[in-house]
Amino acid sequence: MKILNLYAGIGGNRKLWGNNHDITAVEINPRFASVYKDHFPDDEIIVGDAHAWLLNHYKEYKFIWSSPPCPTHSSFAVVSANSDCERTGNAKRSAVYPEMSLYQEIIFLRHFCKSKWVVENVIPYYEPLIKGQKIQRHLFWSNFIISQANIEADNIKEGIIGDMEKNLGFDLSNYAGLEKRKVLRNCVQPELGKHIFNCAFKEVQSTLI
What we know:
The protein is built from nine helices and seven strands. The chain has helices at about 30-40, 50-55, 75-80, 85-90, 100-110, 160-170, 180-185, 190-200, 205-209; strands spanning about 1-5, 20-25, 45, 65, 115-120, 135, 140. The protein has a seven-stranded mixed beta sheet with strand order 3-2-1-4-5-7-6, sandwiched between helices.
């Protein structure tokens, strides 16, 4: 089955999908893409703009997963912009507009995509412009029913890098110059990625995984 994995990062969501699929992963950060390729050598890796790739290639795939950038939607964006820098010792960040490519993709997929698809992001600091489904620290939009997953929360806010690597199943010890905490925090738990994949194809999941 042909699968498109957009904004792929290092592949947390994809980790338990198995190796019997034709998977294309698009990631704009070459460092992240390199780690992904090391872990999933059989996947096709595109270092480029996932937003543009979706528009131009969406008809080619049976399943599409998209995880657009989340920092401008996160509650941390508000906390950081409004923080008391003298008290916290952190550098204050400027307030920014939320990145609207998230909603562009949801609207686009709803109206043009005939395949199974899911869009993932953080639970935003504002009321979502399009209602999604909350699962743990994520918000999901899809054209199939996602059942609630009986999966323990990843607790990334308190986790240290070693524990996060162990929980997600990635060993990043040999990668110098990589923002490991950021990379791991951006991962969707592999078990949750598998659960959602199974929900999309539950009628044939025994032959897909």
